[in-house]
């Protein structure tokens, strides 16, 4: 089926906003110093249907860095370029059951980065982005993610510099993959591109457009552009379903029943295939690194709008 009628969707989106706006649980990420100062009260919800219709409440135009949500869209771009087989073989698609920056996940799995939605797997995915130089590979990523958003995305320089100075752990993950022969590309150059993709500045509205593009089989509802194929959109959503919210992915699927991706700056995109996507932004996170208000809003709206993929009606 489709989404409920426009007015009903609008009403429910505002209800979700009103319900969770006052929620005071969660902590703003501070391991990247530039994120620590985010306003914990910010909360925005933007829902875009595959036909381009939009519903919004709260801080939908407040900028924040894309962080781990970039992993979903870089994965889609790499899948489009290199194919399903190659990413399955080189990266993997199983949940680690461990935090997003886990070294143990690699060690326990004979050097496999495990999946593209944790840091190691995302770094290995970014390494597969084609291009003759680091600058061109970065431009390829920025341009590709901009096509998902339907507008040119730019780097948040302060977040980029802050993370570049404090990302020793990601550099270590890349070196560890290299030691297992799993990263043949230049590890530090690759981590730099990964850090840049995480520092792209977006809004909740951008997340809704990016997610709606996956919901619509790769066609951006704003621009009409076919960004990736329908098969790649499907494969990306499958990986989000199993790995998108890290070690919480099982609970998320059990409670919400929608593929989603979160990032430490407080963004979440949840996708209802064939229907649309919700972009949520609110900085306070749970202990797995997922936005608390964003998760609650997704759960409420999945139920209220009848979006759970496993429901028979
Ligand atoms: N840039 C962040 C990191 O690599 C992204 C992590 C996240 O959003 N979970 O640590």
TrEMBL record:
The alphabetized UniProt keywords are:
Acetylation, Hydrolase
Q: What class of enzyme is it?
A: hydrolase
The GO terms describing molecular function are: glutaminase activity
Q: Taxonomically, which superkingdom? A: Bacteria
Q: Which residues bind substrate?
A: 68, 119, 163, 170, 194, 246, 264
Question: Signal sequence: where?
Answer: none
EC number(s) from the headed UniProt entry: 3.5.1.2
Catalysed reaction equations from the record:
L-glutamine + H2O = L-glutamate + NH4(+)
> Which family does the record claim for this protein?
Belongs to the glutaminase family.
User: Subunit composition?
Assistant: Homotetramer.
The protein here is known as Glutaminase
Lineage summary: Bacteria, Bacillati, Actinomycetota, Actinomycetes, Micrococcales
> What is the gene name?
glsA
């Amino acid at each position: 089926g489709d989404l409920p009628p426009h007015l009903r969707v609008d009403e429910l989106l505002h209800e979700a906003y009103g319900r969770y706006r006052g929620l005071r649980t969660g902590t703003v990420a501070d391991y990247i110093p530039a994120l620590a100062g985010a306003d914990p009260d910010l909360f925005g919800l933007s829902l875009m249907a595959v036909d381009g219709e939009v519903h919004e409440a709260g801080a939908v135009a407040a900028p924040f860095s894309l962080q781990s949500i970039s992993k979903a869209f870089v994965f889609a771009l790499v899948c489009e370029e290199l194919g399903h087989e190659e990413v399955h073989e080189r990266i993997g698609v199983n949940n680690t059951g461990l935090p997003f920056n886990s070294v143990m996940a690699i060690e326990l799995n004979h050097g496999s980065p495990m999946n593209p939605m944790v840091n190691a797997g995302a770094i290995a995915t970014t390494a597969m982005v084609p291009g003759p130089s680091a600058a061109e590979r970065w431009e390829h990523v920025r341009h590709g993610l901009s096509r998902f958003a339907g507008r040119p995305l730019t780097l948040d320089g302060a977040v980029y510099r802050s993370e570049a100075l404090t990302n020793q752990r990601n550099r270590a993950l890349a070196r560890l993959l290299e030691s297992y022969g799993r990263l043949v590309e230049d590890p530090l150059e690759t981590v730099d591109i990964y850090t840049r993709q995480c520092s792209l500045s977006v809004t909740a509205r951008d997340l809704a457009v990016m997610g709606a593009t996956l919901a619509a089989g790769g066609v951006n509802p704003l621009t009409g552009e076919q960004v990736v194929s329908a098969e790649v959109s499907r494969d990306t959503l499958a990986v989000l379903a199993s790995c998108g919210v890290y070690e919480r992915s099982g609970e998320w699927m059990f409670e919400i029943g929608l593929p989603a991706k979160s990032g430490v700056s407080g963004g979440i995109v949840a996708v209802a295939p064939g229907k649309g996507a919700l972009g949520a932004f609110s900085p306070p996170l749970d202990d797995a690194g997922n936005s608390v208000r964003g998760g609650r809003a997704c759960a409420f709206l999945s139920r209220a709008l009848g979006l759970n993929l496993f429901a028979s009606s």
